[in-house]
Design a protein that fits this description.
about 475 residues; mainly beta; Thrombin, subunit H; five-stranded antiparallel β-sheet
Length: about 475
């Protein structure tokens, strides 16, 4: 290197002086704020001895955002800086950081520890990360505990019908189509009048329960036999059908194993049809024969009485002191058509609907048949003739040994006790559709919401009060059940 010239020395001296002046006149270094930097741990009140970029060697002040919480400092995923906090815009993650050029977070673990819920992150739920806990089907979550809708009613808060401690109290039940047990008895048929008096038959006796009172035996003694006379002296064997005429206060009975039709009129029991022989024969009422008289239905205007003659495979009529066959050949079968050519297979109940219809529970044909008294034809009204359990249009719906029939006060709802589907079905005479009111198709003895919870074990008879309440003789558990509308 050569010796500097005089002009060169002057230039160097001038540059050094200017640099010194700039350093001496620069802004004094401010005391740093106390806070947490982006690295999450630097204490800015202590000297920073780390290696720093030369461009910031003389500026030891903390970043302007050092006092802002880390979550507020997240960088947008599009401007991700490796290793720094960012925001992946996903409400179901947390701890988002830049990793290999992408903003990534850790998913929230949505788990409430309950087996009856489905736990998911939606970003909108109340829990951290937007966790939502939804009860699984047929369960409910109450006060942090899981319950199954099929559990026994007395311990199950899911059962919206049950509200207190007793499984048999009338006053503790509420809700739409709620089923509960009313009275323990082996009822074979059942009827209710407008005043709310419930009447039912057992195999050898007849009982009633005025509204708000207790049940009492009104005829028979509980002993089998065949005796007419006073209410207490009368004897029955195998009662299976009952109909009450509110206008005359008479009760008609099918005394099945005595092969007779009996009548309670006031304080007396008498026989009004049947000679006690196990056969089918028309003629004068007391000399006519029934093979297996079961369900009854009364034309309340003419007082004609229709009888389902089960093993006779016919529908019979008691009118004007004579018994005639309305429809059926006496041979089991499944044939529609003219009254004298149609066939049934063990009809167990009938229901007369003015002015000219008779519905038949055709038990072994798994169908509801219709006798049209005007056209003198028999047809299948609902069901396919094949056992099954299906709701829907009349020709699609299926039954499994339909047993009892009832009609509501409007004449628009036909109710069916579908015995081996363990359910109560409804046929709308307005829409011609079949639906299930209560029961699930599985046997049981569970009270509660109609289709969701309640189970029957062998419903054989139904009746409907003017309030819409349906009473069911559930022979499988020997209880009368009530369905609240």
């Amino acid at each position: 290197m050569g010796t500097p010239t005089t002009s060169g020395r002057l230039f160097l001296i001038t540059a050094l002086c200017l640099s010194a002046i700039a350093a001496c006149t620069s802004e004094p270094t401010a005391l740093p704020e106390v806070g947490v930097g982006l690295d999450g741990g630097t204490d800015f009140t202590q000297p920073d001895t780390s290696v720093v970029d030369q461009n910031t060697a003389f500026d030891t002040r903390p970043p302007l955002d050092a006092h802002i919480p880390p979550d507020a400092q997240k960088q947008d995923a599009s401007s991700c800086v490796e290793g720094k906090v960012c925001d992946d815009k996903d409400p179901c993650t947390h701890g988002d950081t830049c990793q290999q050029g992408k903003c990534k977070g850790t998913a929230y673990q949505c788990d409430d520890g309950l087996s009856c819920t489905t736990d998911t992150c939606t970003g909108t739920g109340p829990a951290p990360g937007g966790c939502t806990f939804t009860p699984k089907p047929k369960t409910c979550l109450i006060a942090g505990k899981c319950y199954n809708e099929d559990d026994a009613e007395s311990t199950n808060p899911c059962n919206k019908c049950f509200s207190a401690t007793s499984a048999t109290s009338w006053t503790e039940w509420k809700g739409v189509n709620c089923v509960h047990r009313v009275y323990y008895t082996a009822a074979t048929d059942i009827a209710i009048d407008s005043a709310g008096t419930l009447r039912y038959s057992m195999y050898s006796s007849v009982w009633n329960r005025p509204a708000g009172q207790s049940f009492a035996m009104i005829a028979g003694s509980g002993a089998f036999g065949y005796v007419n006379g006073t209410l207490t002296a009368a004897r029955f064997t195998g009662l299976s059908g009952l109909v009450y005429d509110e206008a005359t206060k008479k009760t008609y009975l099918s005394d099945t194993v005595n092969y007779r039709i009996r009548l309670i009129d006031g304080a007396t029991v008498s026989t009004i049809a049947g000679d006690g022989q196990n056969r089918t024969a028309d003629g004068n009422a007391l000399s006519a024969s029934f093979f297996e008289p079961r369900g009854l239905s009364l034309d309340t205007t003419s007082k004609d009485l229709y009888v389902a003659d089960g093993n006779g495979h016919r529908v019979r009529l008691l009118s004007g002191g004579k018994v005639t066959s309305v429809a059926g050949t006496g041979v089991a079968g499944y044939v529609n058509g003219a009254l004298n050519a149609a066939q049934f297979s063990r009809p167990v109940d009938v229901l007369y609907l003015a002015p000219d219809k008779v519905f038949v529970a055709d038990w072994a044909n798994h169908a509801i048949r219709l006798i049209d008294l005007t056209t003198k034809k028999v047809s299948t009204f609902a069901g396919t003739g094949v056992a099954g359990y299906k709701d829907g249009a009349l020709g699609v719906a299926q039954f499994n040994y339909p047993h009892g029939l009832a009609i509501d006060s409007t004449g628009k709802r036909l109710i069916v006790a579908d015995k081996l589907n363990y359910s109560i079905r409804e046929i709308s005479l307005t829409t011609n559709m079949v639906s299930t009111i209560a029961g699930s198709g599985k046997p049981g003895a569970v009270d509660g919401e109609g289709r969701k919870v309640a189970r029957f074990r062998g419903p054989v008879a139904v009746t409907i009060h003017t309030t819409g309440e349906i009473y069911v003789a559930d022979s499988g558990i020997t209880y009368i059940r009530r369905i609240i509308p």
